[in-house]
Design brief:
The protein is α+β, with helices and mostly antiparallel strands. The protein has 5 helices and 5 strands; from the N terminus they run αααβββαββα. Strands 1-2-3-5-4 form a 5-stranded antiparallel sheet.
Length: 139
């Protein structure tokens, strides 16, 4: 399969076979975001179409796109190697927390405040529902 030239919206090294030249695969990150949106009950197809043109290295653009799709609060934080997506459940108590690198939550070095403020339902997965203390979710 021939490699096509990158467009202004695609990082150098992108081609149809290897979605991103980085070890942090753009395709995997976007698929994980779409899975979070699907679990929240929002339109996963609209999400995929909207975010597929946004590089994983542009968290502000991804966050803005998610804010337009998900009816509750979303937070996109941390470095690209271990980006974290927190999405509040609209009309229900709780959040969905996803490690966009696909690593289990238990492998993250959590800050002390986060370790006590976030109660995960499944630390062995990259995606889990969680309860976040009121102080942490409003501050």
């Amino acid at each position: 399969m021939p490699v096509r030239a990158a467009t202004p919206h695609e990082p150098n090294g992108w081609n149809r076979r290897h979605r991103h030249a980085d070890p942090y695969h753009r395709h995997d990150c976007h698929d994980r975001i779409v899975e979070v949106v699907r679990r929240l009950g929002s339109d996963a197809d609209v999400c995929r179409t909207t975010i597929e043109v946004i590089p994983a290295s542009e968290p502000n653009r991804l966050a803005d796109a998610l804010a337009a799709i998900v009816p509750a609060r979303t937070i996109l934080t941390s470095t690209i190697e271990r980006r974290l997506l927190l999405a509040e459940h609209h009309g229900a108590i709780g959040w969905t927390v996803a490690d966009l690198a696909g690593q289990p939550h238990r492998t993250r070095a959590w800050l002390a405040w986060a370790a006590t403020a976030i109660e995960f339902d499944d630390l062995s997965s990259w995606i889990s529902t969680a309860h976040i203390s009121r102080a942490a979710s409003t501050g």
